[in-house]
Design brief:
The chain has 322 residues and is of the alpha/beta class. The chain is built from eight helices and eleven strands. 29% of the residues lie in helices and 18% in strands. The strands form three sheets. Strands 3-4-2-6-11-7-10 form a seven-stranded mixed β-sheet, sandwiched between helices. Helix 3 (94-104) runs parallel beside helix 7. It is globular, with a radius of gyration of 20 Å.
Length: 322
């Protein structure tokens, strides 16, 4: 698979380019691990590679500064806008995430060679992705739209049996992470039970295991980073759009899903701090194993509806006030 750099607008799969700059969205799924020869997240993500979605006319008028929209503003929002989707499979390893994610936020993006030989060429926007949508598998149950990524607490081995990096932390960070480590959250306990073959690092001589997570290069970032996306509104929209089995979450589980989410949120903030670079929005969705209870097709549909709503919301917020 080749990577193709393009300036917008372009043609994708024979679809004529629009005069309006399209949105560019990267959707990631994970590679094989544990009992999954093909990760359920990748099964849901792969069909979206190099496809085009369209933002339709809004269901309700856009309100600007608490006033009724003008005719001109309403006319602006009636224009359709294309969304170009690219996908990427990420290995279930801490090293892989740290090596890959910073490049996703570069201008232009830098992607590794595809792990899936069936994928056609990836189209990369010179000015970067507008949205990066990460997807990973959790246990049986509804979809979970995650709100926050965590810096520390990665004590389970990855798919290759490797640990997350050991980090030096401040006394305050050490105290906080000790509390989180001694009393794992419900989601973390579920992850530990589900992934029991990926053993948790045992204490040495009765002492606490070393702190693991994000160290060098991430010192300036906080212990938790929240997405700038209004997850509650997104979940509400999905429920109204017949995606009923979904809820928002504050705990991504302190495994590779949480790890890639924090890394991507941090890299988005890092990139937006540079001149002339707007922040790439980042979101993470946990899906269940196939048919537990949602099918792959249902998860793919939830991703599509999420992307359309997120890009449509971005389009509305970009409307200039008069």
């Amino acid at each position: 698979m080749q990577l193709i750099l393009v300036d917008s607008p372009i043609d994708v799969n024979g679809i004529p380019a629009s005069e309006v700059r399209p949105y560019h969205v990267l959707i990631t799924g994970f590679g094989p691990f544990s009992r999954y020869a093909v990760n359920p997240s990748w099964l849901a993500v792969k069909p979206l590679h190099n496809t085009v979605l369209t933002i339709d006319s809004p269901d309700e008028p856009v309100i600007v500064d608490d006033q009724n929209p003008t005719a001109e503003e309403n006319s602006f929002t009636q224009d359709t806008r294309d969304i170009y989707l690219s996908t990427l499979q990420v290995p279930v390893t801490y090293e892989g995430v740290l090596a890959i994610v910073p490049g996703l936020h570069a201008r232009p993006p830098v992607l590794p060679p595809s792990a899936d030989p069936d994928l056609p060429d990836t189209i990369l926007p010179v000015d970067g992705f507008d949205l990066i949508f990460h997807v990973g598998v959790a246990g049986r149950g509804p979809l979970r739209m995650e709100r926050v990524g965590h810096k520390f607490g990665y004590n389970m081995k990855d798919a290759t049996g490797s640990h997350a990096p050991v980090v030096r932390v401040t006394r305050e960070e050490n105290s906080n992470s000790n509390r989180g480590q001694s009393e794992p959250s419900e989601m973390e306990r579920m992850e530990r039970a589900r992934l029991s073959e990926y053993l948790i690092e045992p204490p040495v001589d009765g002492t606490e295991p070393p702190k693991r997570g994000f160290g060098k290069g991430y010192e300036s970032f906080p212990e938790e980073i929240f997405t700038e996306i209004d997850v509650e509104k997104l979940v509400h929209h999905l429920k109204k759009s017949s995606i009923e089995q979904i809820y928002s979450s504050l705990d991504a589980g302190h495994y590779l899903c949480d790890f890639i989410y924090y890394c991507s949120l941090a890299e988005s903030k890092r990139a937006s701090g540079k001149a002339d670079k707007s922040a790439t929005k980042v979101i993470f969705l946990h899906c269940p194993p196939v048919d537990q209870p949602l099918s792959t097709e249902e998860v793919t549909e939830a991703i599509k509806k999420s992307v359309i709503w997120l890009c449509g919301t971005a389009a509305k917020s970009a409307i200039p006030s008069t």
